[in-house]
Write the structure tokens for this entry.
Amino acid sequence: MPTLNDLATSRTNLGDADVEWLHALVSDWQLLADLSFADLILWAPVRDDGGWLALAQMRPTTGPTSLQDDVVGTVAGPEDQRLLNVARDERRIWRESDPDWTTGVPVRAEAIPVTRAGRVIAVIERCTNLASARTPSRLELTYVQGADDLARMVAEGTFPFAGEAAMLVRSPRVGDGLLRLGRTGRVTYASPNAQSAYRRLGLAADLIGAELAVVTAGLCASDEPLDESLMVVAAGRAPRAAEVDGNGSVVQLRAIPLIVGGSRTGALILIRDVTELRRRERELMTKDATIREIHHRVKNNLQTVAALLRLQARRLRAPEARDALDEAVRRVGSIAVVHETLSHAPDEVVDFDDIADRVAMMAGEVSAPEVRVIPKITGSFGPLSAAVATPLAMVLTELLQNALQHGFPAPVKDPANRDWAVRDWDAKDAAANDGGLLEVIAVREAERLTVTVADNGVGLPEGFDLDSTTSLGLQIVRTLVVSELGGRLRIVPRPGGGTEAVVDLPVRNE
Ligand SMILES: Nc1ncnc2c1ncn2[C@@H]1O[C@H](COP(=O)(O)OP(=O)(O)OP(=O)(O)O)[C@@H](O)[C@H]1O
Ligand SMILES: [Mg+2]
């Protein structure tokens, strides 16, 4: 089905501001259809042609439709055309005296000119199915009277309300609850739903005759300051929405001030009980907050563990034992980074680029100070679920660690082997100063993530075989990549010297 915009720009002479106005009108005209118990069709004059084109249509939710077929995009027949012309030329609401029987049911057609800035830019045809009309009740009389006020405001160019922010995801509907206020803000009619919404807010008395702003102020949760804008809305003075929170219920009010022929006739207040909606929102919010808090605590605990290990390492004499504990501190630290990130993330998905930056920085910091190689990250990891991020952070830590430790080894501290140490120092120093390279390359595709950790260091030892290594670091990496993440791991000599570790993972798009 063509949109209002498409139709208006391709087939009418309406300007941008006119189309804007019509958009505002149709975003709110359910109200007019419901109050009228009638179908609405928005007609605009066709460019260079005497005819009319249907731009939009709305069926009532309060009664049966009189238009079985969609009419948007069609042009008006001669009968309708005459009616629409009268409304436009005489600039007033025009009602056909005899009902139309062409569809088998009696339909009364009325034409309401849509005025903007003093010009009639379109006409609404209101089609009422007379067959379903019953002896009007108080409710129906109030609705129809409200509809007539609104129709006159459309014709006078005062509805839709210019500049009213479309702040409601869904405005309350007539069926949700309706109040009619008189000129002084007193309730002259309350639909049963509106009355029960106020009862749930704690009102014991009847709403009829009460001054809505006063009643509403009395029901608000008393420990909170009175909301000015709520008072304006409850008085029916501004075309806005507000919420009343009292007695454990939350009720949304939307005011439609009625100003006809320059004088205020009162207001319609649409009312909707949003208690359940708000409760669910709050629940979701607290659930999120709890998850974030848990991650925060896990991170703190891991940092405590790391601190304990560090303390213990300091007391050790044997360098090997010390190194082992330092290693453990790093491993714990990389997991803490993930939880830290998750403690800020709104859900269980994290931006891994952030984590990679911090893991790389950590690895660079803890490497021997003589090894001045700073890992460089290129490409993007993108968002990853926590289930992938945690193991991947550890894998990255291990691989960076290996490159810094074995690729660019620090001078050996063993004084008995000084010769070798000096040679090694030269080699490493050269590497660090002219082009010591440690690069992490992330390539994220639709369902794969490839991470390469490349160094141009001394290269793998002779006879290196990944599958038969018994050292802990690469065993951890292999277990995480293959078993935990279902990916592949390769560690090979890098073309041009050094070593290259490639991790290839299946990932879902988050
Ligand atoms: N980037 C690299 N450059 C050179 N050699 C490497 C590199 N990565 C791994 N190696 C070699 O692979 C061996 C196994 O690495 P692995 O991480 O499993 O153990 P480790 O680093 O010696 O000890 P740890 O358990 O503390 O990590 C290393 O000892 C090293 O010889
Ligand atoms: Mg290692």
User: Anything to note?
Assistant: The radius of gyration is 36 Å. DSSP finds 14 helices and 17 strands in the chain.
